[in-house]
Amino acid sequence: MRVLIAGGGTGGHIYPALAVARSLLGGHRGLEASIVPAAGIPFRRLALRSLRSVDFGVHAVLDPLRLGASVPQAGAILAAHRPDAIFTTGGYVAVPVLLAAAPLGIPVVLWDGNVIPGRAVRATARLADVLAVSFEATCVALESSAPGRPCYVTGTPIRDTRELDRDDARTRLGVPPGLRVLLIFGGSQAVRRFNGAVAAALPRLAERVAVIHVTGEDGYAAALTAREALPEDRRDRYRPHPFLRDDMLAALAAADLVVGRAGSSTLAEVTALGVPSVIVPYPHAAGHQRANARALVDAGAARLVDDEAFDADALLDAASLLDDPVAHLEMAAAARALGRPGSADAVADLVLAAAAREPLPDRAVIEQRARGSAA
pTM above 0.85? Predict the structure, then answer.
């Protein structure tokens, strides 16, 4: 059985794809060029680039041409590999694959991780045979784009969190014993505001908690300098990292509180581990991250801070949640109730059923799988 996965551009598309299957198609600009080959997965690029912004430069002319060239390119790849099914994590780079798949009759399972589906997902949902989403509201939002398509709430496919050990994770990351841990990261985009807030608040934070801080490459040197400026007996409380790709799950398992963006994968891993969060939605994503964050906030699992309001004082106020054990415990329970640690298994079941042309599983069975229970 052959399954082809189409998606790319950001980690929010790539990591769910990696959690579900072992091959990927993607675009030139995305992170997949470094992440996917490193995972030992066959990887093919299309001519188009992923779209993260709209401008009126040369790409406004070239992008439609790239898209047009990518459709026959995708068709050639499909004809050569003859997949039994396609799983797509959506996004612009998946559009030519679905357009090429339609006349070939290849069944498609489309997953979307945002409360508000993006334009590419809305445009291609009608080409999918099955929809899988992270939020119930997304099924409602896609009904007009893909009327009659079966839609399953699977959650976001993530790395396996079920065997993580909190103490082992803290030891692995060098966290001093007995301290509460604050994990701060801004995702793959726009980390400068986070880094500025940490720099200004660090002396006061280090008095109270251990801080694991993902700085990005550009902010790492300044973070090391800030660490050396701390009193010697507090330097080991601040653990800056340029990236935490392989150790991010360990960092989440070690954390008592997470301060970060509202990407679908981030929220899925936080809830799977039952960690309270303070979410600062990325403001330039068409409202997707704010809507994602609102789902957790409304459930009592997170608090929300607007990007423009996030500074040192806001960070210190977020950290004060660690001084309120009752509120912290309630938020942790609410996060855990939202978690779907078996989401990758649930989506894989849908893909395999589509590939085998078998009846789709019952929604209750998929819900059990997503929750991590045996079906």
Answer: no
Element housing 214 (H / E): strand 210-214
Count Cβ atoms within 10 A of the Cβ of residue 143 and give its class: 0-12 exposed, 13-18 middle, 19 or more buried: middle
What residues are paired with 240 via a beta bridge?
Answer: 213
Contact of 6 with 101, CB cutoff 8 Å = no
CA–CA dist 163, 125 (Å, integer)? 35
Determine the topology of domain 166-338 in CATH: Rossmann fold (3.40.50)
Q: Where in the chain is the domain with CATH 3.40.50.2000?
A: 3-157+341-371, 166-338
| Entry field: residues in the chain | 375
Closest-CA residue to 108 (of 135, 134, 126, 81): 126
Cβ proximity of 307 and 285 under 8 Å:
no
pLDDT tens string for the chain (375 positions)? 788 888 765 667 678 888 885 333 433 334 444 444 555 545 455 545 454 444 545 444 445 555 556 776 777 878 787 899 999 987 777 888 888 888 899 999 999 999 999 888 998 899 999 999 999 999 999 999 999 999 999 999 988 887 899 999 999 999 999 999 999 998 655 688 999 999 999 999 999 999 999 999 999 999 999 999 999 999 999 999 999 878 999 999 999 999 999 988 899 999 999 999 999 999 886 688 999 999 999 999 999 999 999 999 999 999 999 999 999 999 999 999 999 999 999 999 999 999 999 999 999 999 999 998 654
Distance CA 302, CA 366 (A): 26
Asked whether the beta carbons of 32 and 8 are under 8 A apart, the reply is yes
Token reading at 266: 């981030």
Distances (CA, A) of 253 to 3, 163, 271: 32, 10, 11
Query: By C-alpha distance, which of 111, 109, 104, 88 is closest to 27?
Result: 88
Fold for the domain defined by 3-157+341-371: Rossmann fold (3.40.50)
Tokens matching residue 280: 């600062």
